[in-house]
Model the fold of this input.
Amino acid sequence: MEAPEFEQGQESSSNFDIENVRPFLERVSRLIESGFGETEILQVCAVIDAMEHDEEKEREFPIGYAGIACHLRVGIFMDEVDTPDIHFFTTPELALQIDDEMEKFFDELEI
Done:
């Protein structure tokens, strides 16, 4: 089954301290059934590590979520050297779960 395009997509985004990116991506990974695991997390982290100030990059991953094939697009904007803006564009349901997870994550860090 081929994953649908982003016609019904939604964005979830926030600014992250660089040391919090990987732990948050690991939490996102637990929300997804397949297609966004350790390999994909390492890819996103490697992209971020290589980015310059004011640079933008994007990676897209075919994933399985809630029994359907879809995509997770991860956009990164390095607006500050150690605090990239990270955008997750995916199905509305997953985007809402990512938003909820972000709120919990930042509450736990007392940010």
Notes: Helices lie at 18-31, 38-50, 92-108. The longest strand covers residues 56-65. Strands lie at 10-15, 56-65, 68-77, 85-90.
